[in-house]
Amino acid sequence: MSLLVALLLLADGGAAEAKMPLPQLLTQACASCHSLKLVHQQRLTEAQWKGTLAKMRGWGALIDDDQAAQLAEQLAAAQGPSAPLPELERVDARARLSSVEPTAPTLPKGDVKRGSALFVARCLACHGPDARGMIGVNLVQRPIVDRDAELAAFVRKGRGLMVPNADLTDAQLGDLVSFLKKLPAGARP
Amino acid sequence: MKLARRELLAGAAALGAARVAGASAPELLVLNDYPQALETPLEYFDRLITPTDAFFVRSHFGPPRLDVRRPLKIGGLVEKPYELTAAALEKLPQVTVTAVLQCAGNGRAFVSPPVPGAQWRHGAMGQATWTGVRVRDLLARARPKVTRGHLLTAGADLGPKPQVPLFHRSLPLERALHPDTLVATRMNGQPLPLEHGAPMRLVVPGWAGDHWLKWLTELTVSEVEGDGFWVKKAYRIPPTPVPPGTKVAPEQMEPVAVMPVKAVIARADGAVITPGPQEVVGVAFSGVAALAKVEVSLDGGRSWRAAELEGQPGVGRWQVFRARFEAKPGVVTVVARAADASGAVQPEAGVWNPSGYFFNAQHRVTWTVAA
Asked: Which residues in chain B have Cβ-Cβ distances shorter than 8 Å to A101?
């Protein structure tokens, strides 16, 4: 189902179709891989945006030519070279540093084979057969597999382009986590 | 208990100073949420060692899972490739160096005209002690077949999509064999936190942070420079300055390496200070040579005086500089200007380059002096 949604988002609907609102387009184009703060701190010309977007599309950003042109035009207008820098939020350092560190498990220890089957059924279509990313992002060697409460929460709720999977039980998520933990890192250059 | 007015004021000032200098819970400034990019607030640049919790955080993809048993493979043009874990490395003779780690893009926010990338202000830098084993000794065990060439370095972090090139660097072998180049397991005496490269990272004093590979997995001896996007296209800088805004092909640029001389004042532009005895405090360093001097101006650069330096001098090692003055009501424009032992002096304006690397213009701040 999520693959269909993604394909619909990418489909060229014809010249008369209204442009996607900017916030939605930014979520589709950028937010899977990195947060939008990185986008909103740039102060670039349209030409610089075109160059940056071309690089991002080469790295898997899911937008078509029209959407890239729209983004370059709108971002240059909203955040050109003379725009002010955003204020930086000041945060508790320990909280941020520990946000990638392992937490005590909350899910039952699962079965890798069942986890693999669940992955094929629910995740592979977007995250790719080796979980290295496709429409969805890389899942191999991610810190979140050691933070299972957090993983369970957003798999159930959905996030960005990822649809909710609210029906999954703790046992099923435990299987999924066991499977994800077993995934090997990809090839080195 | 009754306190004299002087004691109360001293106590209040100390409390205010403690808040300003981060003696309470350490804080960081957020450039990006994921992958995390966090910079150190300016007030921490009044001391020799940056507390680990207040140390800036930066990577292209965020950390991989914590895996304390993940091995480091040493190979390539060597007789005896081998691998070892952090636990094994900690049993070998340990060396500690004090060195500045700075992102090549620190200060990019001040580059004009702006360039793409994380818009760091002053805080993508810190100084810590780093403990580990000399790369020279680790390579000697493998018996390299060449004495000239490159050490290709790689870590365990993976990009968000398979099209994103894996992050790696290419370090000239001569630099890799320098006695201060380490594979470190400890930072400020404690095991590396995950965001700082646990269980092993590279330490290359004097060189920009892109070489200090985190979550280190491979050291590969090669006769030639590494290939791929991150070596051939990224992290490059024109050999001589170009007009601001110029497009330069990567092949016409050289890899970022040694950090130029730089000083940063530990109190922001726009601060309000009280009249009376005050100081200009900050940190200064160079990757080219040891720091030679820091001069401070209180009149926007018309006249200069030498600041006192604290701490040990060294290549890629910062010292604290301090200049005391009597603040009079009004406005004071303070500038710091560092010079290193090679004779290099910080320029007044930043040297523009297409990626905004190595911004090192003299730091200039204006303070209001008011009771």
From this structure: 66, 193-194
